[in-house]
Specification:
Blueprint: H1 3-10, H2 12-23, H3 27-32, H4 36-48, H5 53-62, H6 76-88
Helix pairs in contact: 1-2, 2-4, 2-5
């Protein structure tokens, strides 16, 4: 089990973050980014402190394919950076 897999399974909010990263196709980039442990921890903290869990769950259920997260996503900038890295490869 990877560190990201452990975090994803640790609680519902973290699971939402994992689903969002997978939905937007950046979960692999997140695992290999420099200092990925610290990056993941900060992303988890942002997700855990978000007040939009219900909206996020609904958004994820309604968007099987998406190119960007909802406007309220606190990891929106991180996701955009990871997508940029993915596009360069």
């Amino acid at each position: 089990m990877s560190f990201l897999d452990y975090l994803i399974s640790s609680d519902a909010r973290t699971a939402l973050m994992g689903r969002m990263m997978q939905r937007l196709g950046v979960d692999r980039q997140l695992k290999v980014v420099a200092d990925h442990g610290a990056v993941i921890n900060r992303a988890v903290d942002r997700c855990r402190s978000c007040g939009h869990q219900d909206e996020c769950m609904t958004w994820l259920d309604e968007h099987e394919h998406a190119s960007e997260p909802p406007d309220y996503c606190r990891n929106r900038d991180l996701i955009a950076r990871l997508q940029h890295v993915s596009g360069e490869g």
